[in-house]
## 1
Amino acid sequence: MRIQRIIVVAVGTSFMMLCVAGLASAGHFYGSSGSNDPPIDVINGTLFGNGTIAGTLAAGLPQPNENFDHVVFFANAGDSITVDTNGSTADSGLAILEDTTKDGIFVGDAPPNVGTELTFLFSNDSGGGGSDNSLINFSATYTGAYLASIAEQSGGEMEWFVNVSGSTFVPPIEIALDIKPGPSNNTVALNGNGTLRMAILANEEFNVMDINIGSLLFGDPILVDGGATPLGATSDRLRDLNHDGLDDLLVGFSISDLVAGGALDASSVEGRLTGELLDGTPIVGSDIVRMVPQNNGGALVTSAVPEPSTCTLALVALCLAMGRRRAF
């Protein structure tokens, strides 16, 4: 049963969750003194490839604790990236920061200057009064999210734009994934020997026939991102599972192999399917899993409330009907 969908962003062969805050006023950043300023709380925009984002930096503090605006951009390792900001004053600055945790989340309480969330990579403040006040060229060292931080170092208001070019990053298509389709609470026996089946649901804009079956990999995103190896599909077939007239793709994965390879364990609460279309476009989808033990007799042991069978529901309806007759 499909319980929830989680938006994620592809990062090469791995995937990350993305947290993007509102596009409102200027964000806060630890100043160059790296001490007591509030952490980043606003992301002014996100680029999933090349493009331009503009904004206005509100008046703030001068150096060393000036305000910053922030733009997230994505690149693949080895991309030759140009980041340019054209501020309306001669005293603008631009810094590029690495996503230390590689989770795409830049909003938090830990000081980025100590490497918990962000690591300083490059800075360029021309300060020369020209129209191109800041320009940074660099080779992306990893595939994932980067942060461009724009400052007006005299503390005044400033209009700016950030232009990113040279990125080859392609964002993924989010697919509708339904683990154990049908009336199920998505329980998976930790020492089960069967097949965990899941459906990739088609829609008018997404044809499952375009999927490269050999590229599909499944596992707990926390475990996989921590180094575990996701598992490839062991079976696949086409079937209209939700009766919308479109063929869906039903794929299966060996439960024992998932557990043995570390792609699922007792702590898993989510399963993530990644892969590619035949043209190389990445795809990703997620759904909840509920891991349960299994006793020696092979019966599932779970505290979840069992789903009523058709017979049980019919019996309840019959008893209610008889009770109404007695009342009259």
Note: The mean pLDDT is 74.
## 2
Amino acid sequence: MVLPVVWAGRSAPFVSLSGTITASINETDIVSGAKTIILTLFEDTWIASGSVFNAQRQAILNKLVSNLSEANGWDAELSNLPVTNVVRNSDVQVTITLSALVTYDITEAEVVSSGAPAAALVISSGDLAAGNFTITATSFATSIEWPEGGSIEWPGGGGDITWP
């Protein structure tokens, strides 16, 4: 029999969020992938590994919800994460490794909430909220300002560009 981890001073089950996703991240990190989301249970356990747990992996991914509704934001791109990226490391820990989400694109900071669905838990009869992580938008220059009067020598002898 596996007993849940007991956290001093807490009587109700809860889940904590950690992993490389909680560091300062931006949309380039999401496009590149490989960040981890670690969900650790206290005073509860994940359901048994194998087919029972595997049937809940999509529900675990679905608990990752954005505060925005951007066309290529988190909620839109979540369907591109395979359920096989949700791994039950132990009775109390699950790791989600992000694949490269190459079309992810946001215009402002996106806050993603996380949690654990009740159906994936042994003790809790309700979903557990784990906390949030923020993804900062990366801005790219849309124009270039040139100093007055100058030129650029084109590499490879392709000619020069001169402006007044």
Note: The chain has a mean pLDDT of 87.
## 3
Amino acid sequence: MTARGPVTLVVTFGPSRSPVYTEAVRYGRRHSHTATEVSKGRWRIEWELDRVALDYAHAHQLVFLVSGWRSSMFEVDGEPERAFNVAAMLCSARNWLRSMGECLERFRGRPWTYCFLCPLFDKERAGVQIGDFLPRGWWQPGSEN
């Protein structure tokens, strides 16, 4: 069984008149793997997330700081994601890494939506296969008679 592996989390935000904006920029620059001002007042903060719990904690803190701003965007491996799902994945992954060193989530049915974003997610252990969650009655390969 193998986990998904490293993912790139990108948080883009700003400009903003929020009193927290300056602290968000400072925090992102100090704790991320890459911080770039892509245009005047607009920042792109990146993490390569794998098995370092502190990276998840820092990313979660920044997501919490900027998620309420309309200009904020969140991407996991180049795909846009909702702030809620990103924050839930970061919090869950950090807690599993701190307590057990890996994800041991028990799935009773379908895994949580945020699990599919996570570097720790092991689809074999979760019992996920292609086609597991297609709508009822959807055509399945090999089902034609």
Note: Residues 7-126 form one domain.
## 4
Amino acid sequence: MNIAEYSVTKKVTTWLLIILFLAGGFTALQEISRLEDPEFTIKEAKTYTAYPGATPLEVEVEREVTYHIENAVQQLQQLKRVESISQDGFSEVTVVIKDKYKKADFPITPSCDPAQGLATELFERLRPQIEAVKLPPGYFLEWGGEYEDSRDTNAAIGSTLPAGFLAMIIVVILLFGKVRQPLIIWLTVPLAIIGITAGLLTMNVAFGFMGLLGALSLVGLLIKNAIILIEEIDMNIAAGKESYNAILDSAVSRMRPVMMAASTTILGMAPLLSDVFFLDMAVVIMFGLGFASVLTLIVVPVLYAIFFNIKPQT
């Protein structure tokens, strides 16, 4: 018995579990500790120095007090700017620290923008030449900008992605209560790569971060299509229909719902083709979903017959 069937037949138990989960979540929310005095970093500091009797007043204060404080502050690695005021017998120096900084000492930051084409293409051409430059002792080279943002973002996604996929795998296994059906479902997910590759090459679009998000969203859409088809096959077999005919009839009966759902999603993404920011995501979803939906109707029945050793009756 799978989870869906158990939930329908045991309504009282299902509602009891929902109420218990809600009560437990509300109780846990009340017990979560709250930080009354959160940590914060002071980004600005002021230094006030009294120098009574300095003559001539402003010049002597500037030369003997303000100048030395500014010179010492300039050694700070995370310095953003320094402001100072010298008055009669009084000096004020304001130090502003960068919002974000690294451990590099006095970094030199060159930058350039391509006149045409993609920044990634320019980066691939320039990177070997720049990294071949010999640096003096004490200096090191670090890439920033779009490359750094992409690297940090991909690392953040990569650290949480395994847990997300594991959760989806567990949910699919619990849904069917078996192993072979979820295995068939997950074997159809890589089919999207065919459509994604064809779409990116046809539209001459680079696979960027938004394209990665589109590819991840495709996983859920393809799993849904495969679940619809496999669930129909299982229901027909359970109803007493011959297994081979059940596979063929299920593929035919589920073709319209699967293709209609894919078509509406593809048409909904079409307006994003004119948006430069969402272009790669739209291409990935439209072509990946279109190709994979068609292939799912072919591959899933074949895999089901192979995994369950179903052959046509002679």
Note: The radius of gyration is 32 Å.
